[in-house]
Design a protein that fits this description.
It is found in: Cell membrane. The protein is mainly α and 165 residues long. The protein contains six helices and three strands.
Length: 165
């Protein structure tokens, strides 16, 4: 990943020297051509040297994860806000077990923090063998729906971001 980025920067700098104009626009053009060159080189002969995934695809997946989290955060904010302004605060709080698909410690930590930062949910504990999260939900009647929602949003995006698989 880092080697790909350095090669891309190098191509951008070479483009500036080749054009004889040292400004950000020429660097951006060279950087763009560097991305194309990396794509072509990786497809033809340097896949083992440069890795299976291009760094800008990896960056795109991280940006997609952050945007997805921000959208879920906004939706949860609106739901909790609606709940606060109801006449009768009739909530159904529940703690449930969430079976984890993620295995690495950084993935479990990221998922637990994303759940906790989303209003209305809180990660209470991680199982001793790192296969279960205990989650408190402020108001739900559908535990399976909550599990599927987390699995199809946060956990799926975290699994996509992982370099190893």
């Amino acid at each position: 990943m880092a080697l790909q980025f350095l090669i891309n920067i190098f191509v951008g700098v070479i483009w500036m020297f080749y054009s004889g104009t040292f400004n950000s626009e020429y660097f951006a053009v060279g950087f763009f051509w560097g991305m194309i060159i990396l794509f072509i080189i990786r497809k033809t002969f340097a896949k083992s040297f440069l890795g299976d995934q291009l760094y800008y695809v990896y960056i795109y997946k991280w940006i997609k994860l952050v945007v997805m989290f921000l959208i879920e955060l906004l939706k949860a904010d609106i739901n909790v806000l609606k709940m606060m302004f109801r006449k009768d605060l009739d909530v159904n709080p529940v703690i449930f077990e969430y079976p984890l698909q993620v295995k690495k410690n950084w993935q479990i930590t990221l998922l637990a923090n994303m759940i906790t930062l989303t209003p209305g949910t809180l990660t209470v504990n991680v199982g001793h063998d790192n296969t279960i999260l205990f989650i408190h939900c402020l108001d739900t009647d559908d535990i399976e729906g909550e599990i599927e929602g987390i699995k199809n949003s946060f956990e799926k995006a975290i699994l996509e971001v992982d370099l190893d698989g």
